[in-house]
Amino acid sequence: MISYLVALLSNYLGLAITIAIQVFLLPFLLNNLGPRLTGLYYLFMTISNFAAVGIGWLSGAGVYLLASSDSQREKINVQDVHWVVFLGFCAYATLILLIIVLAGMTAGNWWLCGAEVSLINEGRNACFLLGFYIWIQYIHQADIALFTAILQQGWANFYRIISQVVFAAIVIFYILNNPRLDLLMLANLIGVLVAAIGARLQLRISGKLEPFKLHLPNSKLVKKMFVTKGGSYFIFGLAQFGLIYGDVLIIGAVLGSTFVSAYLVIWKIPEVIALLLGRISEILSPYLTRIDSGKGTIHTSLIFLCTSRLQHCLGIIAGLSYGIFGSSLVALWVGEANRPDVWWYYWVAGILLFIQVVNRHDIILHYALAKLGRLVVPQFIELLLKVTLTLALFPFLGIAAPLVAALLIQVFGLTWVYRASALKQVNVTWKDWFYKVGMLSCILLIVAGFCAFIIRLFMPAAGLINFIISFSLFLILGLVSIILIERYQRQDGLFNLYKILSIV
User: Which of the listed ranges 102-111, 163-172, 293-302 does the model predict with the highest average pLDDT?
Assistant: First the structure.
């Protein structure tokens, strides 16, 4: 339990630093580089994440094999698994580097067409640096996967923090006075390079990794990693990254990089909130693997229902908060001039935030139990429908098209598919889920909605002070409601979860 709390708190510390950087970075870039280069920077960072679709699954497969190794007849050597993961990342990262370098050479012809020569050179250099950033980052992921598998996620999060701190320091002490796109990419590269060197040195010094020795990987392990277990992780990742990062790419391709900035202004805050809440489930993944492998489905189902209830409640509070206060939050962040003034944008984003949080919890269960193959078809259906609907809605809804498309797809089917599949994995009936999760979540929704109405009626969020008071009051009431719900659950509540996690 202590290792889980350390991992969760360190992860939130890293996210807090990342959020602080992003809160400052987007308005800074808009004011200094303009919407076009700002959108291009975020397109580059999206490409970095999107490229992980081809190999990010390897970390998941490696973590699963290591985390479940204690319950297997044939023990799996940590060094062998790490070596396979490392070689896989190296090969893929090198391929991506070559592709991005070739793409960089087309600056001014294929992209940044008609821009000034100085901007074209700046964009080309940034593209080259993006390739090296991805190369270092992916190789570093092999070490991060090892920390995760041995339940030392606190160290994995520490090196993520180091990367962000180095990036922020370079931005503050140099780039503030020299706002350039290529320098921003260079700062990202230096940050991940420092973290990668630190992580590798620690693993070597602590004895978790043996001295480097070039050798052929274990053939049986390679087959298990890339086919038996890794195949489903790869196919699932293909759809997952398309769903997460496809919006920015589609908007950039159809509407241009300027509209990417406008879309991010609406969706960035709920995206970050969903990321924060999703960490509760993601960090739980290796624990679920170990518990299910060693103790069976009964203990796994108890953890799943408890944390699912928590995620539903937190998602409701977060979604309502953004629907009610989202417009004011965005205005405080980027200023009135850059805020889209369409009220329903924020409600759509808030509802979608809730759905993403609860879906993520169901998906993580499949991820932990290596049952992602069951979600491949639903994920690709979701991806196909989202792309089709988004393109169809662009003429009517503009930048809100991806959000509306995703909401329609989830509400009218797919979120229930993910839920049904998750319940099947842990042998939980819909009736049990309703009494343990669904009914209590509905009660919280009614109570929180009523509180929000009363707060806005007597304390409108006009002015900074009133906004802070009303927003804080709503969050406090929401959290108190969640605590009361968990207390009501007694033995199956959140406050007794440590008893189950302590058996790992």
Answer: 163-172
Taking only the tens place, the pLDDT of each residue in 331-383 is 877 777 777 778 888 999 999 999 989 998 988 888 777 776 677 778 778 87
Going by C-beta distance under 8 Å and a sequence separation of 6 or more, which residues neighbour residue 417? 378
CA distance 194 to 94: 19
Longest dimension (CA), the chain: 70
CB 500 within 8 A of CB 303: yes
pLDDT per residue over 252-273, tens digit each? 666 665 566 677 778 888 888 8
Neighbours of 168 (CB within 10 A): 18
Say how far apart CA 238 and CA 243 lie, in whole Å: 9
Measured distance CA(278)–CA(281) in Å, rounded: 5
Whether 153 and 11 have beta carbons less than 8 Å apart is answered as yes
The answer to whether 141 and 93 have CB atoms below 8 angstroms apart is no
Distance CA 4, CA 500 (A): 12
Distance CA 129, CA 465 (A): 43
28-49 pLDDT, tens digit per residue, is 777 777 776 777 777 777 776 6
Asked if pLDDT for residue 199 goes beyond 80, the answer is: yes
Q: How far is residue 192's CA from residue 41's CA, in Å, rounded to a whole number?
A: 17
Contacts 24+ apart (CB under 8 A), 17-20: 17/161, 17/164, 17/165, 17/168, 18/164, 19/272, 20/168
Are 61 and 289 in contact, with CB atoms under 8 Å apart?
no
Judge contact between 18 and 101, C-beta under 8 A. no
Average pLDDT over residues 161-176: 84
- Which among 406, 287, 425 has a CA at the least distance from the CA of 362? 425
Report the C-alpha gap between 139 and 64 in whole angstroms: 19
User: Which of 88, 184, 194 is closest to 130 using CA atoms?
Assistant: 184
Beta-carbon contacts of residue 432 (< 8 Å; ≥ 6 apart): 305
Count Cβ atoms below 10 Å from residue 403 Cβ, excluding itself.
22
Please answer whether residues 48 and 130 qualify as being in contact, where contact means their C-beta atoms are separated by less than 8 angstroms: yes
Is the pTM for the entire model greater than 0.85? Answer: no
Runs of H (alpha helix) within 51-116: 57-67, 78-104
Q: Which residues pair with 111 in a beta bridge?
A: 107
**Residues 335 and 359 sit within 8 Å (Cβ to Cβ):** no
Are 26 and 264 within 8 A, CB to CB? Answer: yes
Q: Which residues contact 7 (CB under 8 A, 6 or more apart)?
A: 151, 153, 154, 156, 157, 283
